[in-house]
Amino acid sequence: xxxxIETIRIDxxxxxxxxxxxxRLNDTRAHFWPESTPLQLSDHLFPGCKAGIVKAxxxxxxxxxxxxxxxxxxxxxxxxxxxIQADDIDYTYKSTGREPLNRLFALRGVCDDILIVKxxxxxxxxxxxxxxxxxxxxxxxxxxxxxxxxxxxxxxEGILQEKxxxxxxxxxxxxxxxxxAMIDWGELELPVRNIIP
Length: 197
Fold this sequence. Notes:
GO molecular function, one term: transaminase activity
Order of helices and strands: EEHEEEHEEEEHEEEE
Helix content: 10-25%
Shape: globular
Oligomer: single chain
Pfam family, one: Aminotran_4
Protein name: Aminotransferase class IV family protein
Number of strands: 13
Mean pLDDT: 95
Strand order of the largest sheet: 10-9-8-11-12
InterPro entries: Aminotrans_IV (IPR001544), Aminotransferase-like (IPR036038), BCAT-like_C (IPR043132), BCAT-like_N (IPR043131)
Number of helices: 3
Keywords: Aminotransferase, Transferase
Low-confidence stretches: none
């Protein structure tokens, strides 16, 4: 059985989005190990008071938390996305087994990252959920590869709306944003014209 991970942003000593990480961790454990006891990540995190953005990587499995490591975080800039078709990919649970995503990422050509199309619908990049702006609203794909913790928070706050988005719908939007637990909302965006078929 593959091990699972939570990647958590610590901003100047403050742990971000912790309830959503707890929920996903415990939902994953309940799915694979129905008899498992719920865990609280706060019992296993030691954020310290280091200035700046720190990435906490928590690895867990059937027996609970196996490892927690910390590193300074530097965001990878993305200026272009290559559309990549992958109808059979499955990354429903955030695991250490990223080989299928890594294989797709290797097909990006001259682009910085990929935007995965599954069964005719846009999903995610190799590292982030996405949202598209049409001048009025931000829409995120209804069926992402991974239901990210930041995505869950933005949906609950009403900042995002879900929508099935196909490659042929891209011309309806001006901007695409990438976001995840480490990339905050609004930190990384690019024009839709920089998505390369």
